[in-house]
Give the backbone structure.
Amino acid sequence: YQRRVRAFVQSHTFNFEGSLFQEAITLADFDNDGTNELCIGNVAGDLAVFKENHLRWVTCNLGMITCLGVGDLKNKGANSLVVITGEGLCYIFDHDITNDIKQSDSSEEIDSKEIDLSQNYKQLFPLNIKQLIIADVTNRGANDLIVILDTIVRIYSWDDNADEKLRHQDKEMYNFDRQIDAITVNTSKDGSQSIFVCIPSEGIRILKAARTEKNKFLRWDRIAQNVKLSSPVTDAIGNVHSNLIGDNMVCFATLDGLLKMYHGDEELWSLALDNPVFALVKTDIDQDDTDEVVACSWDGLTFFVDHSKNCVRFKFEASVPIRAFCAGQYAMEGSNNKPALVYVTFSGDVVIFYDVQLTSLGVHTLNDYALDLTSMCDSEIMPSSKHRVKLISDLLQKNGLEKPPSTS
């Protein structure tokens, strides 16, 4: 595999004090306007949503926030912000434009003034929940809420007609013998869902959905498959889309510094990184309609890895270690969603690198360019000298290189 080093310069710094868990930060579309915001919560119970280059929504005194997520949990075509605390409280926040207008002094301030968030729903949950995922894991055409606490995986579904609207059934609880490190959900191209449960000393347990003959969800198969790993998992990410395979894959980061990519229960490759990583996310960093894996270590060293194991590194220079990390799509002022990296330091800085651009993670030789140029020229009818220069210029631009000087 190939490794390169890259630098990014476009960044903006927010301030957000307090300790936080890695699962209490995400990039997602909270206000349903088609562009993403940064949602973050700390152990003091402060919750903030940053939009573009400013703090937009905020609330406090929620309790020790352990995890949060954004998705269409109510299955009404609009995203909700779900926040869970260590004390066992689950809060749901829905964006309300009328509330924004009420708290703004004038129409000019609607898009810039800091707004107080008000919860739309609160429910008592079990204690010590440390991760949540919003996804349709039961193949019923509606999203579920999957959570883990200690040794248990639970699945909730939203029910408008119930007193406790997040409904949990006993058959949707799975108890394991050991503490669960992390979970992730993966959907295969045939529509089947799997929950990957990472357990120390046991590796990965895979729960697969059992279905009726009409492909309707019946139950989760309790006879889980095993994926043995040599070291505990620090993070996992599913639904990593690959055009090479035409399916989604799952990636694991282990404590001994390995990245492992799986297609179902089959290991595709393993990559040794320079440092062990604590955070693992996916995003299309080079805009090729295929997800890349982004991994971050405590010292800010960040790895971008594609499906051919090409690796590009970026070092976030900070005087203190990283407290939390996430990556994805973010819209800075006046732009659409573009790749972004977010680093939270122990000094209270939230640094977001926006419009992160990588044209390719692989290394190209002059022979590659010559073959591409030959193909491009062959498609033209007797290209002139000026036309050949333009073709070369277009080719270099396509691969992220500088233009050659123009000739007469």
Notes: Residues 385-398 form the longest helix (14 residues).
